[in-house]
Design a protein that fits this description.
single chain; 373 residues; alpha+beta; Rossmann fold; OB fold (Dihydrolipoamide Acetyltransferase, E2P); 2 domains; 6-stranded mixed beta sheet; 5-stranded antiparallel beta sheet; 10 helices; 24% helix
Length: 373
Amino acid sequence: MTRADAVEAFGGIAIRLRLPRAGFTLDIDLNLPGRGITVLFGPSGSGKTSVLRAVAGLEHAQNARVCVGDALWQEDAQGLWVPTHKRAIGYVFQEASLFDHLDVMGNLRYGLTRSQRSAASANPTMAPLDHAIDLLGIRHLLERRPATLSGGERQRVAIARALATQPRLLLLDEPLSALDAARRQDILPWLERLRDDAQVPMLYVTHSMDELARLADHVVMLSQGRVQASGPVGEVMASLQGPMAQADDAGALLQARVAERSERWQLARVVFEGGELWLRDGGHALGSTVRLRVLARDVSLATQEPQGVSVQNVVPAVVQALQGAAHPSQVLVSLRCGPTVLLSRITRRAAHELALEPGTAVWAMIKAVAVVA
C-alpha cells in the first residue's frame, strides 16, 4: 500500500500537483488529516490559493492526484479528471458572493438547490441547512438582504451556504482578509465553533498568524510553491528547525484547561501538561479548553527560582536545545515543561552567563499580560 493509498484508507486528504505560476512552479505532495482545519500558511504569492483552486478543479495541475477519503477527483496516472461541479466541495472566497436581490434565506436555498447532492433529489432535506444556520448563528438574519449585513455577517452566511451543501471538503480562501480588525474578532469564534462541531475537513488559506494560532489543527507552510513544513500546528510552531523559528512572533501553542477564575484580580488560572499559567480572564467557563500562544520574546529564563518579582508565571523547565536567532545577538532556546515545549528568545550574552546547554534546569518566567488566549 502506498503512502497516498494509506491516507485514502483512513479518510485523509492526498494532494499531489505541479502547476507553473509566475516566477515559480507550485510543486507539492501532501498527505493531510481528514478532519479539522488544515491551514495553508505563507506570504502572498506563495501558492496557497493555487492549491485550493487545483483541489477544486478550477486549475488543471500536472502530475496530479487529488483524493479526499474514498473520493478520487484527479489521478493523472489513470487519466482521471472529475470536473468542479461533480466534486463535493464548498468554496468560500475572500468576498462573500451573495445575491443582493435575495434575502439571506433565499441565498442559502439557492446554494442548496445548486449543490450536487440536492439536485439528485426532488425533495432535498432541509436538515443540513438548518444545522448550518444554527452552527453559524445566523437564524436572526434570514429575512435580511445582503446590503444590510456587516462584512462578518456576510461571510458567516457564505460559510453556512457552503456548509449546507454537505461537502466532503470545505475550502476557505482568506475569508477574513476583507474585514477590519473588529469584524475579524467577531467572526473568529464562529470559525472556532465550526472547527469543533462540523464534521467536515477544511483547507483554510491565510497569512495571518492570529488566524493560524486560533484555528489550525494542522499547518502547511508554503514558500515559492514549495512545502517548508507540514504537521500538527503545535509541533510546527515550536520547532527550532521550522520556518517559523526565525520570525519575530515565534512562539509555542499550548492546549490548556481553565481551572480557576479570580473575580478579584480578573485573572484565570489554566493548567497544561507540565505546568500552569495565570492570564487575563477572557470569560471562559471553568473546565473549558483554551489555546494559549506564548511568544518566545515574552519568556525570560533564570537558573535559580526567582523571588520577589512581578512576573506571575514561573514555570520549571529543562533546556532541550539552543539555536541562533535572526539577529546575531540573540539565541532561541527550546524548553521542555513535562511533555510541553516552550520557546524563549534571549541574548547570546545571557545564555553564556547562565551557562545554558541541553539538560540545564531553568525557570521560565512569563508575564500574565503577555499570554494570549
